Amino acid sequence: MGLVDLPPGKSVVGCRWVCKIQTEVDGIVDCNKARLVAMGFTQEYGIGYETFALVACFASVCSLIAVAAVKHWPWL
After folding, report:
1. pLDDT tens column, 4-19
2. Are 13 and 39 in contact (CB under 8 A)?
3. What is the DSSP string of 20-72?
4. Could you count the other beta carbons within 10 Å of the beta carbon of residue 48?
5. Mean pLDDT throughout 10-30?
6. What angle do CA 61, 55, 42 make, to 5 degrees?
7. Do 51 and 44 form a contact (C-beta atoms < 8 A)?
8. What CA–CA distance (Å, rounded) separates 76 from 61?
């Protein structure tokens, strides 16, 4: 999949940075976290996005690879 032109009359979905400061119990800053999120409230259902996004746990992927190696499953 690559870049495509926008349909006529449509605009790009915006995004923003969400920052969070994690502190310990005594108030000392433990770490700063930031993530980029899409402003989904500007999207229209069925246009330009899918309704399902697969998320896999790292441990699950490692377990699956280990089982595939033990059972000599063919790799695609």
Report:
1. 888 787 777 778 888 8
2. yes
3. EEEE-TTS-EEEEEEEEEE-GGG-BTTBSS-S------HHHHHHHHHHHHHTT
4. 13
5. 84
6. 165
7. no
8. 15
